[in-house]
Amino acid sequence: MLFDLDGTLIDSQVGIFASLNHAFAQIGAALPSPEVLRSWIGPPFHQTFPSVLGENSALVESAIAHYREHYVESGWAGHTVYDGISDTIEMLHARGAQLGVVTTKVLPQARKIVEHLPFGRHFIRVYGPDLKTAHSAKAEMIAQALNDFAIAPEHTAMIGDRHFDIAGARANRVRGIGAAWGFGSIDELRSAGAHAVAHAPRELPGLLEFA
Prior knowledge:
By secondary structure, the protein is an alpha/beta fold.
């Protein structure tokens, strides 16, 4: 079973917003509205920052560098685990499920967060882009996970809160389960073709049973 990180396992809004505020202050740009910032949680910043900063690659790269500096220092700790996630992960682990994390958060940050989660030891692998990667595709990381776990697509699932997660799952013929408690919307998840949408973590075990 593959899980997204931000918006699925953890509510990371506080830390991400703080690091975004720092980054935009450093480059002298106005911070977008909270609604816009929430929509930025999930997709790579190389795709979202230009909507506000324009096609100025140097400015975008500078903002991302300032964001990462602040996030590594303190922003990474600004998160909480969603209610019910811990019990769900423990239950899936007890069933013998092989668990992994697939995220667009850069790999060093993602690993640090997962290692500090109370159930983080149950995740065998963490997938994310490296620091030099401008773009990251969930589909490619899911494909790598299927290869590493040596498991058939029909016997696994990708759980996430944004359409990128569902699109990545569908591209690999993997069951895509929407996490309605995250930063996306139910309409977004259904429009992306989610196999099912869980309204709370406790619903996941029932949706992750394979014949």
